[in-house]
Structure formats: structure tokens, C-alpha cells
Amino acid sequence: MAARRKKPGPGSIALGVVMITLIRGFFAFARLIGPNRSADLGGFLARTLGPFMPVHRKAITNLKAAYPEKSEREIRQLALGAWDNLGRTAFEYPHLDQLIDYDPDDPRPDRRVEVSGVEHFLSLRDDGRPAIIFSAHLANWELPAIIAQRYGLDTTAVFRAPNDLVAARVVAEIRGKTMGGLEASRPGMVFALQGILERGGHVGALIDQHLSRGVVTPFMGRPALTNPLLAKLARRFDCPVHGARVIRLPGHRFRIELTPPLDLPRDAEGRIDVTGAMTAMTAVVESWVREYPEQWLWMHRRWRPIPADRAA
User: What's the CA gap between 80 and 60, in Å, rounded?
Assistant: First the structure.
């Protein structure tokens, strides 16, 4: 017999009420001061406090391994830039509905967001075929899903909910207002994604985080375990795979880029090779990171020991 889930006690309920009140208060304050000042404040706080957090050492270690030729000062500057970007991204959450002022029918140059690869967005929207879009934790990584919705793309973004239930609830509310379909990482998720692709929809996911059951791919000069989900779906549906990234520009602006479909390696039977496909996608992400290293999430434990049976 399955064990009954323990009901939260009065203390847990009270703490949840306090936490959600504080989070909503923060969001109200952020909306009051506007997106630009919110981002500046978030960047300042993260640059100031981030170096005192334990994960800062992980960021420094990762940067030194990726850039052995850089000086200590250069490494510290990149780490501070990464903290700045993370702080800005966090404080931009209350403004996700305002950050994207892009109008496909009126792409004026004075807008906050510019889009590169418009022809690929239009092709995905109109060709009636399934497709896969991969991305990474660069700049404000929430924006591609919003742009997809603006273009009328039938797109479902795979996401990992925050561990904190209160934060997860608030974030879900914001994402639900600004993005298209959303699919939480959970048991049974693969079947849901297959259904989306079977009806000609599109699936998007971030691929730059560690997965213990992943395939080994080179990333920034070291082997890393990478989630093979998107490559497996591409192999099954033989559908195009695009990359989408965000670049943070001066003046509180962004550029969103969608690549042409990748020419992925195939096996002797002509089917997409899973490990080869993930290696190709990861190589694209590496090129993005090397172009704007201060805009990537270096605090994540991306590189962990590779099991002996997969190290070869």
C-alpha cells in the first residue's frame, strides 16, 4: 500500500503564505520601478553578493578550465559578468510580458528586441511539419519561447520547475501569461512531447545542463554528460532541428537568433545518430558561449565525473 502523503502542518502553511507574500511584494516593487531599473538593480546585487556565495568558486573553476590562457583578473571579470547577467535575468522575470516589444509586422529598429533568422520562424510556422529547437542558458533564456508565441508558432517549451514550490507557482503564472505551451520535466513527459510532434508541433528545450544518464559530448574542452532527449525525438520523427539563442545588448536590449536547420550526422541506415546529433548541437552552444562568455551560467556543475563504462 502506498504511503499517504503527509499534509503540511500549520507552520509550513504559514511559511508558504509569508514566502508568496514576499515574492509578490518583490514583483510589485519591480513593476513599480520598471524593467530597466529592475535589471540594473538585479545586476548590481548579483555582482556584489555573488562572489560571496559557495557557487562562485565553481564558476571560477569552470572558467579557468575553459580559458586556461586567461589571467586571474580576466577570469574574475568574466565571473562578475556572469553574476551580472544572472541578476538581471532574475529581476527581469516580473517584466517578461514587457520585455518583448517585437512585432513581426512592424520590426522597427528602435524596439527593445531585434530578431535574426526571421525567415526560419516563418518557415516553421507555415510548413506544417514538426521541428525541434534547442537553446542554452544565455542572456535571458526565457525570451525565445515568448518570441515563438508572437510568431504564432505551435511550440511547447520543456522547463524544469524551481525546487521551491512557492517560487515555482509564481514563475508558472508568469510563464503561462507570456509563452505558448509548457511541459514540465516529469515522468511521462516524453510521451507528451511525442504527441506534440505527431500533430506537427514544435518542441524546445535547453540542452546545456548536466544529466547523469546523458550521452558524453565535448563541451568547452571537456567531456560532459548531455541530455539526449532532443536527438532521440529528431531521430524518431526525422524532423529539422534549429538552435535559438539570446544575446544581451547594451541599452537594455536583446537580439534573438534562430539558426537554419542543422545538418545532423546519420548512421549507416540513414537515421539521425543520437550521440552525433547531441555533439553537433552542443558544438553550436559552445560557439555561442565562447562569443559571449559573460552571459552564460558558469555557476552550474556542468562537468561532473564520467562513469567508467562511458568514458571511452
Answer: 10
Say if CB 157 and CB 199 are below 8 A apart. Answer: no
Q: For residue 2, what pLDDT is reported?
A: 42
Distance CA 289, CA 294 (A): 8
What is the rounded CA–CA span in Å between residue 212 and residue 56?
Answer: 22
Give the containing element (helix H, strand E) for 243: strand 241-249
Please spell the DSSP secondary structure of 65-82, one letter per residue: HH-TTS-HHHHHHHHHHH
Candidates 10, 208, 176; CA nearest to 96 is 176
The pLDDT of residue 162 is above 70: no
What's the number of CA atoms in the CB half-sphere (13 Å) around residue 37?
A: 6
How far is Cα 301 from Cα 90, in angstroms, rounded to an integer? 19
Does residue 238 carry a pLDDT above 50?
A: yes
For residue 215, the SS3 value is strand
Q: ∠ at Cα 216 (55, 158), nearest 5°? A: 65
Round to whole Å and give the CA distance between 144 and 133. Answer: 10
- How far is it, in rounded angstroms, from Cα 145 to Cα 256? 11
Query: CA 227, 231, 236, 238: dihedral to nearest 10 degrees?
Result: 160
The amino acid sitting at 37 is R
CA dist list (Å): 257 to 121, 178, 202, 239: 10, 19, 17, 20
Per-residue pLDDT reduced to its tens digit, 113-128:
888 888 888 888 888 8
C-alpha cell of residue 8: 503540511
